[in-house]
Write a structure and sequence with these properties.
By secondary structure, this protein is an alpha+beta fold. Helices cover about 50% and strands about 5% of the residues.
Length: about 600
């Protein structure tokens, strides 16, 4: 038994070394370095990880938080909050901190997905070596590589592999009815609580598998009854397990009446970009475009990088294994997912926008909440199976040319996916004043804090400060999806805090870079006049803000302090360079 398991341990070690190399810039400083450029989604997900640990430690409702976007709060189920994974790493968060935990999720997600995909492929008929190769293609291919620097909820895809396995094992009759229903339900709940988006993407294809199996069993009543009992059992157990999160999603506080990602339904893909890399990328998907580092050959909203070499490997693999029904099924799944990944308005060179079948379903519940490019996860998984199956078939043939062809297919499949650099990462100074004796005295627990920098989608390091301080205070602003006045999705709005927002962002950025991406554009710097001072004071008091805290970061924090001193008096500061103001309650 140990001899059988040893290769899997070596495979896990190998993928761990690859993941550590890919994430080398955070591995060197795992508690103080954040992936990317120190802005945007990685910091937001650090906050989500911190929230899971905070909710677990204090027995709070995990599906709603009043710590961000205070005093309104946010619904965690309408955000990419990876709650299940956050609870899993909560002990690490308590001991080392949320930055470390998120970095572990990224690195561990790659390893767990590679190992899980390989094990599932092995359980479903592939030999150990080809299954390992297929698992590596899934975890390290561009479908997940693009998300490896930004989206932990996509990288943590190991559960999807086991969810697929549970359904396939159940439909094949290898498990008893009780085990099939329970196992499928548990993985259904896990995937639902990791990422609603990937849950729906994979769930569509699993539902399709159930329908196909049901049609093929119509003539056999005993098998139809067995299938119905399985479906009913999964539905009943899953409904119990997911009752609370489903309620939070559909009717809880700050839930979204429409699709959270409705704006993405108009995204488009240039199909040629799926095959031909741009000149700045060469043959590797990890390159640089004129705007920023990307993991695709073209637009960030591309459905997924395939590459000429990979497509050649797929064509040869199809020729080798076409006689097998599972190859044809996998190809059909890949084609459907590829069409979906183009979105509702794909473009062809010389033709512009063309009709896509995705338009027929994009408005349906679920589909309108999915970023189309993420269907590429299914595309690559299906094609990885076909290639791994062909490698196995050719390796069994006695001719040396066949074995050489197996090696050639494997090389073609990976050569275009090799990154030309490690993931970018940046040291981000966490302001630990909030956790110091001075900070805990100046900002009591549960205080409503307006922080500089003003936290929003791009400049959200104040979320990192709050996460590091174990969310002991509430924060104005943030980076999350919340309902608008009509109930549809929007980023956290500036609302009445407009004068603070304009002042803080203009002072945080250099004048040539002072722009807003979201929640809304930045206005001009307010004039340093009594009228502005009065407006700042009125907003702060009527909003019941307890403290305004200015940390020594950004281009011109002194400018912010000057305005706040005029509006609220001299304030307080200590040797750390942090300034804070106590805001009196509104007399009304």
């Amino acid at each position: 038994m140990r001899a059988r398991r040893a290769p899997w341990w070596w495979y896990g070690l190998g993928t761990t070394l690859v993941a550590l190399a890919l994430y080398q810039r955070v591995v060197a400083h795992p508690t103080s370095t954040v992936l990317g450029w120190g802005i945007d989604d990685p910091i937001q997900q650090t906050w989500f990880v911190a929230w899971s640990a905070h909710a677990a430690a204090h027995g709070l409702n995990p599906f709603f938080s009043g710590a961000m976007n205070a005093p309104h709060g946010i619904n965690l189920m309408t955000n990419t909050s990876l709650l299940a994974v956050g609870y899993l790493v909560a002990p690490l968060t308590w001991l080392v901190g949320p930055v470390f935990s998120l970095n572990v999720i990224f690195v561990g997600g790659v390893v767990a997905t590679a190992l899980s995909a390989a094990l599932v492929m092995h359980r479903q008929g592939l030999e150990r070596g080809p299954a390992m190769f297929g698992g590596a293609l899934v975890a390290l291919g561009p479908a997940l590589l693009i998300h490896g620097q930004n989206h932990a909820f996509m990288v943590a895809s190991a559960g999807l592999c086991w969810w697929i396995d549970a359904v396939l094992q159940s439909l094949s009759g290898r498990w008893s009815l009780r085990r099939a229903a329970l196992s499928t339900s548990l993985w259904t709940a896990w995937c639902f609580l990791v990422s609603l988006e990937t849950f729906f993407i994979v769930g569509v294809f699993l539902l399709g598998a159930l329908v196909v199996v049901a049609i093929t069993r119509v003539s056999r009543r005993d098998r139809v009854r067995e299938l119905m009992l399985y479906v009913l059992g999964v539905g009943a157990v899953s409904a119990v397990l997911l009752a609370a999160p489903l309620y939070a999603l559909m009717a809880g506080r700050q839930h979204i009446a429409g699709p959270p990602h409705a704006w993405v339904t108009q995204l488009t893909t240039t199909w040629s970009q799926l095959i031909r890399p741009g000149t700045w990328v060469a043959i590797a998907p990890l390159g640089r475009d004129p705007r920023h580092h990307v993991f695709l050959s073209g637009s960030f909203f591309n459905g997924g990088y395939l590459g000429v070499f990979f497509l050649l490997a797929v064509l040869v693999a199809l020729a080798v294994t076409w006689s097998r029904r599972r190859t044809r099924v996998a190809l059909l799944v890949a084609v459907i997912a590829l069409l979906a990944s183009g979105g509702a308005h794909p473009q062809l060179p010389g033709l512009g926008s063309v009709w896509s079948p995705y338009r027929l379903v994009v408005g349906l519940p679920g589909f309108s909440s999915v970023m189309p490019r993420n269907f590429s996860v299914v595309v690559l998984a299906a094609l990885a199976w076909i290639i791994a199956d062909a490698v196995q078939e050719l390796s069994h043939r006695s001719r040396m040319t066949s074995r050489g062809a197996a090696v050639a297919i494997a090389v073609l499949a990976v050569v275009g996916f090799v990154p030309n650099q490690a993931y970018a990462a940046r040291y981000v100074k966490v302001e630990r004043w909030y956790s110091s004796p001075a900070g805990t005295h100046a900002v009591p627990d549960n205080s409503l804090v307006l922080a500089y920098p003003y936290p929003e989608g791009v400049r959200n390091v104040s979320l990192l400060d709050q996460a590091d301080a174990a969310l002991r205070y509430r924060l104005v602003g943030g980076q999350a999806i919340v309902p608008s006045v009509t109930g549809s999705a929007q980023q956290v709005p500036v609302g009445p805090y407009r004068p603070f927002y304009d002042l803080f962002v203009r002072s945080y950025e250099r004048p040539t870079f002072a722009f807003g991406i979201y929640p809304e554009p930045v206005g001009p710097l307010p004039p340093d006049t009594p009228a502005t001072w009065h407006q700042l004071a009125a907003v702060a008091t009527t909003a019941h803000i307890n403290r305004i805290v200015v940390t020594p970061r950004g281009h011109d924090p002194a400018q912010v302090r000057r305005y706040l001193t005029h509006a609220f008096g001299s304030g307080h500061h200590d040797a750390s360079g942090v300034w804070w103001w106590d805001i009196p309650r509104s007399k009304s």
